[in-house]
Write a structure and sequence with these properties.
Blueprint lengths: L3 E13 L10 E15 L5 H4 L21 H7 L9 E5 L10 E4 L7 E9 L9 E8 L2 E5 L5 E5 L6 E3 L1 H11 L15 E5 L2 E5 L1 H4 E6 L2 E6 L1 E3 L8 E5 L1 H4 L2 E6 L4 E7 L3
Parallel strand pairs: 8-15, 9-14
Antiparallel strand pairs: 1-2, 3-4, 3-16, 5-17, 6-7, 6-8, 6-10, 9-15, 10-11, 12-13, 16-17
């Protein structure tokens, strides 16, 4: 979902790691800026009222910074906490809700969190987000998106739980996938999705792209891909949220202007 916030811009001290106010040995950034939002508009569904967090630390590119403020990675580099070549962060997401072990790191790649090699993709020049070149999306032998003529973007985003794309294409994708049984009884019979970023293929099976919810001991399922129209400046854009990022370990590399993926280790 897209939200618009209004409020005041504050400067604060950001401390990283396990430390209290009296611990001077922990890493900290003194020129960390954030927006104290007094008003948020959009289809929030009460998320900011019921969720257990105090705010959101943005990890978007510098083009999205408010009033030209520094990103957290640039502030860490300028203060000498990390090298310029360490301006990257990684995500490893555990596959199940409420499962401990997810990892967010800055400036370091933990080899134990993935298998095989990391495949890197260059960012789209002058794109307003972490945009990569989407080649096509296929179900079986049918491809609903072919971006050879018109450039399509795909954005990996931990702030999105599911996978989204233009409504008309998502409707066609749903028709190819078929119905998802609410009781989760047909997950093994659902077709495999193939996402092509540049020319590299990423697979999601039915149980991986279906949204599963455990409520009161009862498991229910639904389509994990939904339609969402983006502002014209983003073009034809797809968002690969947590359903994708739970399967693929990710590296967001500011220094080299790229994003890398590798198959996440099973924990």
């Amino acid at each position: 979902a897209e939200y618009m916030g209004r409020g005041s811009l504050f400067q604060d001290t950001l401390k990283l790691g396990k430390c209290d106010a009296s611990d001077l040995s922990c890493e900290q950034v003194n020129d960390f800026f954030f927006l104290g939002a007094s008003c948020i508009s959009g289809d929030t569904d009460g998320i900011f009222h019921v969720s257990r967090f105090d705010g959101v630390m943005g990890l978007g590119p510098s083009t999205l910074s408010i009033d030209g403020t520094k990103t957290i990675l640039q502030s860490l580099a300028d203060s000498g906490k990390i090298q310029q070549s360490q301006r990257f962060f990684t995500f490893f997401l555990t596959p199940n809700a409420n499962q401990a072990g997810s990892v967010f790191s800055i400036g370091k790649i933990d080899q134990s969190l993935f298998t095989g090699s990391i495949v890197y993709h260059k960012l789209i020049d002058n794109y307003p987000h972490w945009g990569l070149r989407l080649g096509k999306i296929c179900v079986g032998k049918t491809c609903i998106v072919d971006c050879e003529i018109q450039q399509c973007a795909v954005v990996p985003d931990t702030g999105t739980s599911l996978i989204s794309g233009p409504q008309i294409l998502v409707d066609r994708l749903h028709s190819l996938i078929g119905d998802v049984d609410e009781g989760c009884k047909n997950l093994q019979n659902l077709p495999t999705l193939r996402f092509y970023i540049d020319d590299h293929e990423y697979l999601l099976t039915g149980s991986e792209y279906v949204f599963q919810i455990q409520d009161g001991g009862q498991l229910s399922c639904g389509h994990g891909i939904f339609g969402m129209e983006m502002p014209p400046s983003f073009g034809s854009m797809w968002i690969l949220g947590d359903l994708f990022l739970k399967k693929y370990f990710s590296v967001f590399d500011v220094d080299k202007n790229r994003i890398g993926f590798a198959l996440a280790a099973k924990k």
